[in-house]
Amino acid sequence: MNMGLDFSEIAVILVLILLFFGSKEIPNILRQTARFLAKVRVYSDKVRREIDEIARIDEPMPNYDQEVIVKKNAIREKYLAVRKEMPQKDRDDKTAAIWGHLGNDDAYRNARSVMMYVELGSEVATREEIRKLIAAGKRVVIPYMNEDASMGIGEITNLDTDIELGSNNIMVPVKEKRNNFFKSDIQVIITPGVAFDIYGARLGRGKGAYDRFLKDMKGRIPIYAIAFDCQIMPETERLPFAYHDIIVDQIITESGMRLKKATDPLTPAGTPYTAG
Shortest CA distance to 206 belongs to which of 91, 75, 94? Predict the structure, then answer.
């Protein structure tokens, strides 16, 4: 039995057990001690892994991830152009259809708090929906980027006064409305994206902020993506996948729910949220 102690330490423990408890208790106490040390080792390993992960944030990605980045950049450029070419009338009609589908989803309809982005450029528009949520008494939180590239959130109650133009032309909560909502109180997340495959892999704008934020939420609450059909890759294609990527639980387009539940081993790992 190896408990991480040397012989002299074990001998001292045995002598103390003999003095205070007697020889009959030695096996039981050793078993209990071994279990305790095993638990301590598990938790210490977990903490060490978390610290190592934090320390790796600023390190260059491995070569295989660099290859993934190159492939993602090409896909991103392609699908940004496709979405941008969509006529405004088509975009408006399809946006209305998307919110119609989401309105029929129980998790979204019953959520008391929703994390939502404010659209940028040709993304699926969200402003009208945000106004409706606030008017209905829902709590709406908007993401913003911190200086260290991590994502924060802020609850807003007035779309006209509570947001401002941030970096990269993204609308974010004004400073007074930031960090005023607990992440654990979010009940549904609506995320944007540039492109998706039908298994839930998401391609963002390349900063990785959403993936880092969603990591702690995956499996706890529904993570939905909204997009147009033209942003969904053909069924035969997959998005390149990196270790930090987070799969969304559902993709809603003008055609409805598009995510295909994967059963083959090539599908990126992830456990879709299921209510209940």
Answer: 75
Contact (Cβ atoms closer than 8 angstroms) between residue 181 and residue 155? yes
Q: Which residues of 209-223 are buried (b: 16+ CB within 10 A; e: fewer)?
A: bbbebbeebbeebbb
CA angle 32, 33, 34 (to 5 degrees): 90
Whether residue 64 is predicted with pLDDT greater than 60 in this model: the reply is no
One-character DSSP codes across 92-133: HHHHHHHHHHHHT-HHHHH-SEEE-PPP-TTSPP-HHHHHHH
Round to the nearest angstrom and report the end-to-end CA distance of the chain.
Answer: 43
Please tell me the predicted confidence (pLDDT) of residue 43.
Answer: 58
**pLDDT band with cut points at 50, 70 and 90 for residue 68:** confident
Report d(CA 112, CA 148) in Å as an integer. 30
The residues, ordered by sequence, that sit 6+ positions from 145 with a Cβ below 8 Å of its Cβ are 151, 152, 166, 167, 170, 172, 207, 209
Quick one: pLDDT at residue 260?
Answer: 66
Dist. CA 58–CA 74, nearest whole Å: 24
Q: Is the CB of residue 271 less than 8 Å from the CB of residue 214?
A: no
Whole-number pLDDT of residue 124:
97
pLDDT at 113 over 60: yes
Quote the CA–CA distance of 98 and 259 in Å, as a whole number: 14
Residue whose pair of structure tokens reads 């106004």 in the numeric block: 131
Q: What ranges in 150-259 are assigned the alpha helix state H?
A: 209-215
Q: Encoding tokens for residue 6?
A: 């040397």
